[in-house]
Design a protein that fits this description.
Length: 351
């Protein structure tokens, strides 16, 4: 039996990253006892923790609570619920994720925990894990991309040639420009998107595709979204700093994540040596993903297999893309069981 959302209790807890940047954790509980320990959910760039609670019949949070997990959702420095700032994935890897894990373990008294990570929450969390900064996390379910970003050709063109143009006018890109303007440049971008994207009447949906991928739409299939979710996403996307796109551009060119800035806590080459983590990874990729191609997760899985064959797993999901893995109308029966099954495996179990 799924406990209804009205019976959930939500507590927003302010915390600080290791560089003192304000973050928050959203702790969600239900009348059911959390017998399986804590799990942290980590969103992508330019969204927020509520990404995991869309207006669908059953969310991943509902399913995890029903299965006995203690659910914590992290608003890291990329969250639109926090004041916007210029951040990098390396900043999050070194400062945000270790602080969040430390807080959850301290609050729950648990010795270990698990994680469900998505997109740039996944790249930064994986960077942190392979650098040995998250030794208390024993299972990690990663969606879309982790250490090897592979994008469509048109996305490479945009990130290489449009990023410098955008940087000359604004420190951010924002899908929210679909319904609110911040000067002539933002109106010009919105006009360009309206002229080139005709897949639906939701301007934010089209702006998301322009910002993050190469499809129409790029991050989901319209067939997988009900009307309420398609309308809901209008308020779920906002500012993403140009510093992120620059860091991602260097990583795409290198063929693997390249940390930006001066962070001695991270190795110079994140894939030169074996991952410094005992956590078992389950890599998930929607086969229709037009933001990060499924090859992204395949390459990272092969990297882990090279160093510790048989420990980790890979799931390629037909009919799904980037974000509909979490807020597709039928995700509760198509993708959530994969996530829950992986969380319930022991760290030593073979996939």
């Amino acid at each position: 039996m799924i406990i209804t959302r009205a019976e959930h209790r939500t507590e927003v807890i302010p915390i600080r990253a290791r560089d003192n940047t304000p973050l928050s954790l959203v702790h969600v509980t239900s009348p059911l006892e959390a017998v399986k320990g804590p799990v942290i959910l980590v969103h992508g760039s330019g969204v927020r923790a509520e990404l995991f609670r869309p207006p669908v019949r059953t969310t991943i949070v509902d399913v995890l609570l029903d299965d006995g997990w203690d659910v914590w959702m992290l608003n890291w420095r990329a969250s639109i619920d926090l004041d916007p700032l210029s951040w990098t994935l390396a900043d999050a890897a070194v400062y945000d994720h270790p602080a969040a894990v430390e807080h959850v373990l301290g609050a729950t008294g648990a010795e270990t925990m698990k994680a469900v990570i998505h997109c740039q929450g996944s790249t930064s969390f994986t960077m942190s894990a392979v650098a040995g900064l998250l030794p208390q996390v024993d299972t990690i379910v990663s969606n879309a991309v982790s250490l090897h970003p592979v994008v469509p050709a048109f996305s490479r063109l945009k990130i290489n040639y449009l990023t410098p143009v955008v940087k000359a006018f604004t420190p951010y890109l924002s899908p929210a420009w679909g319904y609110k303007s911040q000067g002539y440049f933002t109106r010009a971008i919105r006009g360009l998107v309206k002229a080139t994207h005709h897949e639906c009447d939701n301007t934010v949906c089209k702006m998301v595709s322009f910002t993050y991928g190469s499809g129409r739409p790029a991050l989901w299939s319209h067939e997988n979204l009900d009307d309420a979710t398609h309308q809901w996403l209008i308020g779920e996307f906002a500012e993403v700093p140009v510093t992120f796109f620059e860091e991602m551009g260097r990583s795409i060119k290198a063929g693997h994540m390249v940390a930006a800035g001066d962070h001695p806590e991270l190795p110079d080459n994140l894939v030169a040596e074996a991952p410094q983590t005992d956590a078992r990874f389950a890599f998930i990729a929607g086969l229709d993903n037009l933001c990060f191609l499924p090859e992204s997760q395949q390459r990272t899985y092969e990297f882990f297999q090279k160093h510790r064959p048989g420990k980790d797993s890979l799931h390629l999901i037909p009919g799904y893309g980037h974000l509909d893995v979490f807020f597709g109308d039928h995700a509760w029966q198509d993708t959530f069981p994969i996530i829950v099954d992986e969380l319930n495996r022991t760290p030593e179990s073979k996939p």
